[in-house]
Design a protein that fits this description.
With 235 residues, the chain is mostly helical. The protein has a single domain, classed as MetI-like fold. The chain is built from eleven helices and no strands. Helix 2 packs parallel to helix 5. The radius of gyration is 21 Å and the shape is globular.
């Protein structure tokens, strides 16, 4: 199958609303968003705490947060597979080759991105902002919410970057999910499978969807950042 023919077939699949294709997209979006929802609160709070507090070993914590970004997703998949396998400590959960297992993997993959970006965003703020809030009697919880509000565009960038990393990874989803048709097959695992079978049309169609999702999410961030840099915009 030539490139032109495969591309035409891809657009035909998209336009006629191929049920199998859009179910794969749904599984990917569902597991990705679920993983991010679980990962965002602890990652943001931990990033804030590391950025705002001085404690023994803080430099090591910052180093680990940055180093975790380079952790291969296939290694996360392997470790999670061993944990969730029948003989693993979490085998009784029955999450291996299931959507909850994929969501757990997506959560672990997204957490370092969210943590590192939040840490960088909070560190970039003027420290006098938090000091002034404390001097005016704000509680530490109120200070945290105020600081995170000031760093909200950085946190949004963290979430969108986390979305891009999670939805585009293949190793963990393949190892933990098993690429089961109609259940755990995601966009990336389906692309790998269909390409190996020579079905380039569906692979290209799913690739188009993946790129569209990435562009859409980053487009939202660009619009929000545009408002942030607009002198007349309300904070």
């Amino acid at each position: 199958m030539g490139l032109l023919e495969a591309t035409s077939g891809a657009f035909a699949l998209l336009l006629r609303g191929d049920a199998a294709l859009w179910h794969i997209v749904w599984v990917s979006v569902k597991t990705t968003l679920s993983g991010l929802i679980l990962a965002t609160p602890p990652a943001v709070v931990l990033g804030y705490l590391i950025a705002m507090h001085r404690f023994p070993g803080r430099r090591i914590a910052v180093w680990l947060a940055q180093a975790a970004l380079s952790l291969p997703t296939v290694l996360i998949g392997l470790l999670l597979y061993l944990m969730l396998s029948r003989r693993g400590p979490l085998g009784d959960l029955g999450w291996l080759f299931s959507q909850p297992g994929i969501i757990a993997g997506q959560c672990l993959i997204g957490l370092p991105v969210l943590l590192a970006f939040t840490l960088a965003a909070v560190q970039a703020l003027d420290p006098r902002y938090a000091e002034t809030a404390l001097a005016h009697g704000a509680s530490r919880l109120r200070v945290m919410f105020s600081v995170l509000h000031e760093a909200r565009y950085g946190v949004m960038a963290a979430v969108i970057s986390g979305f891009g990393r999670v939805i585009s990874e293949v190793g963990c989803a393949l190892m933990v999910g098993g690429n089961i048709e109609g259940h755990t097959r995601t966009i990336t695992t389906a692309i790998a499978l269909e390409t190996s079978k020579g079905d380039f049309a569906q692979g290209i169609a799913l690739g188009i969807v993946l790129v569209t999702l990435a562009l859409g999410m980053n487009g939202v961030l660009v619009l929000l950042q545009g408002d942030a840099h607009n002198p007349g915009a309300r904070l």
